[in-house]
Here is the input.
Amino acid sequence: MQKTSDLIWQDTQHQELFRLIDQIREDNVDIGVFRKLHNYAEFHFALEEAYMEQMEYPGREAHVAAHNKFRKELATMLEEHHEYDEELRHSLSLFLSEWLKRHVLGIDKKLESFILDSEVK
Ligand SMILES: [Fe+2]
Ligand SMILES: [Fe+2]
Here is the structure.
């Protein structure tokens, strides 16, 4: 994934999310990687949301709604943690990375500009 952000913490965390999503596709993965992804996504979303709240970011509501949708997808994957065969893991990984790419290049990019234009960073 090419560098998409000058906001270091956000960029680093996105890279870690993409790394975890790629791991889902590796051989012999278990539910642990889904749990890690779930926890890390929560950590990342909560931080972006804390910034948005603190800065009274205008696009906050839609952004939080997008995070919530992803949270729900991940929670569902965790709940249904019976037998993740290779094919399923590949399609989940693809789905998650496509979602994240769209989110990072779209809604997150706007938040990034807003934060970079502000004094907070
Ligand atoms: Fe976001
Ligand atoms: Fe993000």
Summary: The CA atoms of residues 18 and 97 lie 7 Å apart. The chain has a mean pLDDT of 89.
